[in-house]
Protein: DUF418 domain-containing protein
Organism: Saccharothrix syringae
Amino acid sequence: MKGGPVSDQYRLVRLDALRGFALFGILAVNAWVFATGYYGSGIADPARDPAVQWIVSMFFETKFYLLFSFLFGYSFTQQMDSAARAGVAFRPRMLRRHLGLAAIGVAHAVLLFHGDILTTYALLGLVLLALRGISPRRAVRLAVGLILVSGALWTLLGVLDVLTRAPADAAAVSAQVAETVAAYRGSPGTVVAERLRQLPATLGFVVFVQAPSALAMFLLGFAAGRRRVLAEPGRYRALWAWLLRVGAPIGLAGAGFYAYVAVNHPGSPVETVAIGVSILTAPLLAGGYVAVLLRLFDTRAAAVFAPAGRVALSNYILQSVVLGVVFTAYGFGLMGTLSYGAVAGLVVGIYAVQLALSALWLRSHRYGPLEWLLRAVTTGARPVAARQL
């Protein structure tokens, strides 16, 4: 069985559909890094559309990477089960997998998108590998502890910022934004150079803001996988009800505060407070999304999103390729030229095409291109790519 096809009986359509839907949220956030040099600059884009920015900040930013992280942790338990069925040692298999994921992530960060999450997942996955013997209950407690400590520290840091930090120099930031846009619109060489220049700052944000929350969601996903929460959702109706009635409203309140600050006070000291509040509340909203989507995916809607989720890695990289062609010197160099409404429309269009292409691809292939490569690295054998028609 080593290196052979994955039997459909071991796939969870709900898991694939959740991952497929999460791709839309990831695209809805990442597109702005390509579209405007002002994203994350600390000052407002003069050409922004506050309504579009509010929607993205409220419902997408800081939420969907958490959902992806939860699903990564859940899939980790499936990898454990797969290794057990194949009768192979799990640890060497996962070390190879994470090495392959890290290699793809590094190439992605340097060539296409400095905000890459794959390398972070590969490294944090080693922590999960070390903790794989943990009980589901302890995994949940550790996850909650990580969220509470990280969120409290950032909120406290934000309060100190409010008391001590001076506002950003708008003229200096605008000059840097102009240089960034010029680099991305210059040549492929200047695109790579600018990605490398921005990597250190991005890594700092990932390590100190995203990584603790991502690891927490890994652990929650791991616990959910051990308890077969997505395989048997009917056993956890109380959990879904709590997430909808209590968790989601708290998450929406935190998201509302975060969005208000992001739209009206970007780069201000209170933005650090908003980050802390988001760390504390965004996991609850992400959980609310799962509760709603599981109801939706009891219908035929699951079949619409599941194919994209089955080739999520390839789709994630493809999003960066398309955005790179549209906005940088790899293609049309349109960074800073499209309206916010046009960018939002582009996001919807790209995602719709990905849904259709994923379904079409899987009619004749068992894996996406990068899924095939990662599986080959993981198993140390050449998987059978084509479906038998």
Summary: The mean pLDDT is 92. The two ends are 20 Å apart (CA to CA). DSSP finds 14 helices and no strands in the chain.
